[in-house]
Structure formats: structure tokens, C-alpha cells
Amino acid sequence: MSILRTEKLCKSFSNGGVQQHVIKNLDLEIMEGDFTVIMGSSGSGKSTLLYALSGMDKPNMGKVFFGDTAIHNFSNDELAVFRRGNCGFVFQSVYLLENQTVLDNVLTGALIAQKNSPELVKKAKDLLLKVGLNEEDFKKYPNQLSGGEAQRVGIVRAIINDPKILFADEPTGQLNSASSKDVLDIFTQIHKKGQTIVMVTHDLKTALRGTRVLYLRDGGVVGDFGLKAYGEDDIKERREKLSAFLESMGW
Fold this sequence. Notes:
This protein is of the alpha/beta class. It has a single domain (2-249), classed as Rossmann fold (3-Layer(aba) Sandwich). The chain is 37% helix and 28% strand. It is built from eight helices and ten strands. The strands form two sheets. Strands 6-7-8-3-9-10 form a six-stranded mixed sheet, with helices on both faces. Helix 3 runs parallel beside helix 5 (147-159). It is globular, with a radius of gyration of 18 Å. The chain starts with a strand and ends with a helix. The model has no long low-confidence stretch (mean pLDDT 93).
């Protein structure tokens, strides 16, 4: 079942008075329950597409439908309300509030959409424990966390409102190998529970976690590669197949 689709999507920017077309007449459909990975060379429009799909940025032309809802017609205030109720976001930089504890950082986003309640606090704590943090961590401040720990907090903040889609932009870009694996394991776990994910990455290990890899070039999708759910096939074979696809794309 389709959860997100575009029709003739276009996005351009003015650069020194010259219009730079980043996304051009893009027709795309994201299916519910998929883990879609967006790849491409630097400047191919990966993040621009992610922001247009999620309502963080408006297209210059074309349409974006979230289910049957045409979000390309929304005002900025309407888009903010839409994102709060339907989308979760994980970025390369976590952007935690430095003057708030781990638990308060998670609850701040949740309380905008929900009323405070013991159930909500319990949910936040349960999710933090599930991503590998300890109760002692709940009262820590962001400057007391490692990069991997901070990204885990960011993931919990993104999923506490049960988003229909989780959008991620280079979520392991600033992490070491061990922390990257921990974060990707969390993405795999929540995907297996039914979470729809759309993620931008330039990293092969990260892309291996997806069930669909889209390759962007010159503002359009030039390659579309399907994979089984992570862990359901031989990892070596999975890597070889995806590597061959990316090589054919000129990656």
C-alpha cells in the first residue's frame, strides 16, 4: 500500500541569479512498511528530495501526497502540524537541547503533540531502555553523552509519537563503526516491527539495511533496487548484489 508519492516533483534553488534545478519532474512512490534508502553522488539531490518528501521544504512545482492528503498545498503552519503528527526525523547532527536532560529532550517533542501523562513518561523510559541506554542516563545532559548515545536519544525522540514515516538523513555520518552498527541495529529492529523508513546515506554498510535502494542522478531516480528484509539472506551475498547495482550506477 502506498504511503507517500510524488507527481512531477521539481525543486530548484537560485545560485547567483542562476536557477539550479536539483529535482526534476520526479514521479516516486513509497510503500508502507518499506525501508527505502536514497543514494547518489554528492550534489545529486538526496537531502533535497528527503526534505521535499517530508514537508520540511516545499517543491517549486509538482505534487506530494501523504496517503490521500496533498501536502504540497499546505501552508508552513499546516506543514508543521502535519510533520508533528505523521513524521519522525533523525539527522546526522542530533540537535538535542543542551539545557535539558535526556528524558526531557525526548518528552519535549512528545508533549507538543500529546498531553503529559504517566503513560507517556513510561513510554519514553521504555524506549530509551530498548535502545540500550540505562536509567542513570535519563538525567544526563547532552554534553555527557557519547555520539552514539546522543543519536539513540535522537531516535527515541523521533519515534515516541509513533510516526507513520521515519525520515533519516545520514544518521551514522558522525559516528564510529561500533556506534554506527548499534544505531543501524535499532533501525533494523523498528523496521521489522512495521516502521516505514526513508533514509539518505552515502555509506554501503548503512544502505545494506534497506529493502529498497533508489539511486539519484541529475535530479531523477535512475536506479531502483530491491532487497529482502535485513537478516533474511546471506549478508555477503547481499553486499555483493548491492555493490554490483551501485557500480552499475557509477557509484
